[in-house]
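Sequence, please.
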């Protein structure tokens, strides 16, 4: 195959072009420029103090721009939000909620993990001296629980390792048998076929006859120990029981191992994800103005004029600048009177945001570690709660906060309509089917539906393939003197890296324009 054919078959993707050396890899460093003590005379108004807004102000400050960051909330970070004791929130149409966690305990309500290959996110942690630790995304000791009316494994908690080992065994056995029967069209020499079969045997732990009969990967009925206790390997589950019980449902897909952005190792800041926006805030300083709700976005050609409401005083103010970087989530942007072009307004109108709910649940003791030997990682279920995340920090401590629910789409919409008390009841009841210890150990909880959180109205932007082709390019261009940043203005939606990459891109576009005169 020629390089041209390869590129065409790869859809002219950036990764394909990069693999052939046509494009360099994305650089692993941020701008890494010495701060410019000489102002360049240009003022930039940044809308929103989420990661994109903070990073834009940080990088523009290095280049001598005068920046002001207008933020509607009383905190910085946007969807990088760590819930702690005393945190309050009132959802749209909802009731006020105050977090009762003990001091030192927290829930990362928004972003919770940093992929090791998100170079720019890692670089900012390094540059701003934010210590990080391992985030346990993948844990074979976690459970899978299928709520079903049929199947020998239905309504039982089973270890992820058990299902993964058995399904891998049966799959490799099936392929090995097909090779024996010459049922696969393999353009390989006999020597290569033998090598492939040898790999299948190792991958699936098949016996000499290429049969899967279980293995220590599944786990033990009696673990090995001292003296004469050699250990008894547990029998594998029957393939029929796994399938019939619903454990091949997409809810149990092993995305944590295979999906590029969730492959181990993942990281998290020590002390909570809000350590990242707090570190930016220390550098950006008084450029951030809180409690400033954007009321109008106007072009003055040249320049911009922004009208905002000071929520503390109830007074309206306006600020003028040479340029604007807008990082507001699209559901918020579309509700603000503006002079934005029809193309930009179309993106705001037609790109939906993810409906997603989470709940943090504090327990008297870390029973998942003490009783179930689970240290970090995720339990998955087809119930409404969808997932339980186990904290990778504070291990062996006296207490802990589980993320007792993390769901999406219709399930999140359904749960989001419940009262705070009913959400807690649902998470408690469903979680108790997996961990009976809930009943004795539960203390308090804090839940949120991101699609009902003011100034966010959703978890992240969702582009269909068609929408990305039709609409996304608008987010990569300036609309006169207005530029755009945020995860929705990147090819990494839902990730902090998307916010950072888009901020960097917007700053580059703006600075090149100014530098060119």
């Amino acid at each position: 195959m020629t390089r041209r054919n390869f590129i065409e078959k790869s859809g002219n993707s950036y990764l394909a072009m990069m693999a052939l050396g046509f494009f360099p890899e994305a650089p692993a460093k941020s701008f890494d420029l010495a701060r410019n003590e000489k102002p360049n005379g240009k003022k930039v108004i940044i809308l929103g103090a989420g990661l994109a807004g903070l990073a834009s102000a940080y990088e523009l400050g290095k280049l001598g721009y005068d920046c002001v960051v207008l933020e509607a909330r009383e905190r910085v970070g946007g969807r990088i939000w760590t819930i702690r004791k005393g945190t309050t929130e009132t959802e749209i149409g909802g009731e006020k909620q105050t977090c009762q966690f003990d001091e030192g305990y927290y829930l990362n309500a928004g972003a919770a993990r940093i992929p090791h290959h998100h170079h720019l996110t890692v670089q900012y942690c390094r540059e701003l001296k934010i210590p990080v630790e391992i985030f346990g995304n993948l844990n074979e000791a976690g459970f899978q629980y299928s709520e079903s009316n049929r199947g020998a494994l239905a309504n039982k908690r089973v270890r992820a390792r058990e299902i993964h080992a058995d399904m891998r065994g049966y799959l490799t056995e099936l392929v090995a048998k097909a090779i024996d029967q010459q049922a696969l069209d393999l353009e390989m020499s006999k020597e290569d076929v033998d090598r492939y079969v040898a790999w299948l045997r190792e991958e699936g732990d098949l016996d000499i006859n290429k049969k899967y009969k279980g293995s220590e990967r599944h786990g033990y009925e009696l673990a090995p120990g001292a003296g004469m206790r050699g250990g008894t390997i547990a029998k594998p589950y029957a393939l029929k029981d796994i399938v019939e019980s619903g454990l091949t449902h997409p809810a149990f897909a092993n995305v944590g191992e295979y999906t590029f952005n969730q492959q181990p190792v993942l990281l998290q800041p020590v002390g909570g994800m809000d350590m990242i926006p707090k570190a930016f805030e220390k550098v950006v300083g008084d450029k951030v103005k809180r409690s400033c709700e954007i009321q109008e976005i106007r072009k003055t050609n040249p320049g911009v004029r922004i009208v905002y409401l000071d929520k503390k005083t109830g007074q309206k103010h306006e600020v003028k600048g040479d340029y604007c970087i807008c990082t507001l989530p699209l559901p918020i942007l579309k509700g603000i009177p503006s002079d934005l072009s029809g193309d930009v307004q179309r993106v705001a109108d037609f790109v939906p945001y993810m409906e997603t709910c989470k709940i943090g649940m504090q327990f008297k003791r870390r029973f998942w570690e003490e009783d179930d030997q689970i240290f970090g990682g995720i339990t998955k279920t087809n119930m409404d709660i969808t997932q339980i995340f186990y904290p990778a920090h504070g291990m062996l401590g006296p207490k802990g906060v589980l993320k007792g629910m993390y769901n999406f789409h219709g399930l999140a919409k359904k749960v989001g309509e419940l009262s705070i008390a009913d959400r807690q009841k649902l998470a408690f009841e469903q979680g108790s089917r997996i961990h009976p210890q809930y009943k004795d150990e539960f203390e308090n909880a804090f839940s949120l539906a991101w699609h009902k959180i003011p100034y966010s109205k959703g978890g992240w932007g969702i582009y269909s393939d068609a929408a990305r082709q039709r609409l996304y390019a608008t987010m990569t261009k300036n609309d006169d003197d207005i530029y755009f940043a945020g995860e929705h203005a990147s090819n990494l939606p839902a990730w902090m890296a998307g916010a950072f990459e888009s901020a960097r891109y917007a700053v580059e576009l703006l600075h090149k324009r100014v530098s060119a005169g």
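The first strand starts at residue 43 and ends at 47.
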